[in-house]
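Example 191, ligand guanosine-5'-monophosphate.
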Amino acid sequence: MKNGEHKVFIISGPSRVGKEAITNSLLRKRSLNLKKVVTGTTRERRPSEIEGKHFYFFTTEEFMEKIKDGYFLEWAIYGAKYYGTPIQEIRGIQRSGKYALMNIEVHGAGQVARKLSDVVRIFIKPDSLLTLRKRMERAKFTKHQITDRLKTAKRELAESKKYDYIVVNRDGHLRQTIAEVSAIIKKESET
Ligand code: 5GP
């Protein structure tokens, strides 16, 4: 068995930094052999999202039951909603011979790193908070949402020093960011 066989890759970063675009692009690169860990949440489904593909959507009561049943490897509260990683999702991916790719926030990432061995944490940073603010404005976030998410972003940036890698997603250079993250995953999965 190769050492890196069960590695789990975690991508974290503040809201609107580009995590979604980066993870989607990584998942399309067959040579990386990645599979996305579908997580659970109590937040509302967005119109573009599909149950079981983007998230498992639970009521708060269902989520609480699942916490009690030990269904989640980790869980966290983000924007007043619950998010959690079903342990079986990761195990299933590992059994299939692929590497698990997670897109989760910083507290959850810390819990996963403490509970599993072979976890590689990659933090995606914006070139500035102003870039994030502009993107949130373009995405029509409310003033309250922007203030709230920027406050969270500052806390998340402070946590980034605990990560194995920090990659800056410079505005307008998404392809370069994807190439950098791919190179990290390639290197880590070979060792
Ligand atoms: P969104 O609601 O915008 O899709 O996600 C909000 C945040 O929750 C993002 O930072 C995302 O990475 C994080 N997230 C998604 N699933 C999980 C999970 O299972 N656990 C944790 N800790 N964070 C998650």
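Summary: The first strand starts at residue 8 and ends at 12.
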